[in-house]
Amino acid sequence: MWSNLPFDVLAKIFSFLSPDSLARARSTCRHWNSCVDTYPIATSFILLSLHHRAWFLALPTRNRGQHCYVHNPVIDNWHLLSLDFLSDPVRPVASIGALILVRPTNCTVLQLALCNPFTRQFRYLPMSNISRTNPAVGVVTLDSVQHGPNPNFRVYVAGGMSEAPRGGAMYELKLEMYDSTDDTWHVVGFVPTEFAVRLTVWTPNESVYSNGVLYWMTSARAYSVMGYEIDGHRWRGFGVPMADKLEFAALLCRNGGLTLVGGASEGEACIWELKEGDRWGLIEKVPMEMGRKLLGGKRSWGSIKCVGSEEAIYLYKELGSGMVVWREMEEKARWAWFWIEGCHSIGGNQVPNLPIKGVFLHPNLFPFTF
Asked: What is the DSSP letter of 240?
């Protein structure tokens, strides 16, 4: 019966499969493989993302071989993906739908690239107009196809150090933007000197885009937030709750709004949302028993990292230490807390407990073409 189903019916069924299940399905027989190739839209990332949550991808923060680990939240399973197609070790900057924006770790000058670890594709972006080291990077997706294999997006680069006219180095004040629609970098504005210094010295690469503003969190105590209003070309800064007590702090986007996650010394981890007038409102606290389990008996939140999407927030440490997850339920009416076991073994082979950097992405088996 299955081999006689019309392609359009079979493609509709395939659209409900997760990417790993779809890959196995297309290898079942020639008929099913032809269906996937014939109806790529019906089995595309856009439909798959409607039925499945984003996956958590963990890259080792130290050079432990060219590989990464991926957690499938649908069946609560870990996978090992080889990155041997990469010529250089990389670290993630941001996820763009099914792609990861990365930068090589063996080069001090900023160089960005796109990677799809599932299709084993890798492509460098053009070099920016200004050669700079250690700038802040922000990503903005442009339209409804942001989760497809070829999303339209922009990358903003601010701050960093560049070569001074008479030798030496200086803080770079020009703001550059890469546009995927024309594959070109443009100088689009300037950064006040104070912000350029903070973006260079105290800001990690992670950014959050919400309601027309790109935000970065400073990493120095006390924590603070810097924002760039894209249409108005305006920069502003403001504080965060418990700024001098937080041991870690991360910005996320939830329900379209700016969200802050942070943990205080010998205290709880909390989640706040930004309200009007740059005021923060407390919306949730990490359950104490899950927090203790994540910390492993320690009282410091300093080693905790956080990554989020519109549908989930993950707090994690090492690969094998497990993760605390606050996730939107399927009925969309409430969020609930879960514990996800760390990755200890894959296919019967033991996995070392590595320090990791995590990102969210929606797996896509269709190659990008830009």
From this structure: -
What is the rounded distance in angstroms from the CA atom of residue 40 to the CA atom of residue 183?
25
Please state whether beta strands 335-340 and 349-350 pair in parallel, antiparallel, or not at all (unpaired): unpaired
Residue type, 170: M
In this predicted structure, the answer to whether residue 144 has a pLDDT above a threshold of 80 is no
3-state helix, strand, coil in the chain (%, to 5): 15, 40, 40
Chain segment 96-120, per-residue pLDDT in tens: 988 999 998 888 899 999 999 988 8
Per-residue pLDDT tens over the stretch 260-283: 999 997 788 999 999 998 899 999
Strand partners, 123: 114
Listed in sequence order, the DSSP H helices in the chain are: 7-14, 19-26, 30-38, 45-51, 193-201, 288-295
CA torsion 48→49→55→57, rounded to 10°?
A: 90
pTM equals 0.86
274 φ, ψ (degrees, to nearest 5): -80, 125
96, 153 contact by CB (below 8 A)? yes
Q: Which long-range contacts (CB under 8 A, 24 or more apart) does 69-72 make?
A: 69/319, 69/343, 69/346, 69/351, 69/356, 70/117, 70/363, 71/340, 71/343, 72/18, 72/20
Contact status, residue 337 vs residue 324, Cβ threshold 8 Å:
yes
